[in-house]
Amino acid sequence: xxxxNACVMAIAMLALLAACATDRSRPSxxxxxxxxxxxxxxxxxxxYPKEDPFYDETGIASWYGEDFHGKSTANGExxxxxxxxxxxxxxxxxxxxxxxxxxxxxSILLRVNDRGPYARGRIIDVSKHAADLLGFxxxxxxxxxxxxxGRASGAGADVADGSxxxxxxxxxxxxxxxxxxxxxxxxxxxxxxxxxxxPVVPDPKGPVVGATADMEPDGTVTTMQVPGATQIWVxxxxxxxxxxxxxxxxxxxxAGRPQISQVIRGGKPFYRVRFGPYAAVxxxxxxxxxxxxxxxxxxxxxxE
Length: 304
What we know:
The chain is an alpha+beta fold and 304 residues long.
């Protein structure tokens, strides 16, 4: 009898431990666990999540709404199209970014808790409510600047293990990731590296380095100083060597002849290979599709 009681107690203890493990493995609501995430592949392109406190990029934003409302985000939270949230391909989850509409100056803080967008030529997907506050919900897209601000509240101080952003995404077969310049697996297509470009608006404050996990969007819309006009480009690459830029120009003859422009960074010249400028997002999208079809898979849309 004593042996039977011991067995029953052991089984009960195992069940309790299993229940606790299950509770920890699936964060819900606004308590999603902070994680950088492992490399993952979407439509043949590998993406490499990383912490980037100096992240500052301009490009085209889109928004997502009813089709995803109520579904789980990449870090286990629940997507609410009326919340102030966003999806990004490589920033840790959850973090806070400032998104500024370069066409009207509206600027808000958003909680990044999901992965995407995977449409070519887009750098961030915002919630329907965020798109409304930024003034582009009706248009569908906007020219924006995205800046890292810090960790979001509820993120916790510890980094989660490098699990893939979603259960349907398989991690890249790489043992270590030390920088965004790591080559993709053989035969795979690499995502475009961050562009080397001049900021299009003055930065009122630098990125928050080592920010604590106590930030959360409050819905405040501020007005930022923005240029009177911006231009849209399709950038194929940026190089420290002009000869490499010229070689890329030669290799894109089937899509047309892009131009080479020089920019100084850190006292050193860089050479950007681009098509444009374009007045409309649709025109840039068309050229982006054309150059990708011509084999330039690293091309992306930039805004200046």
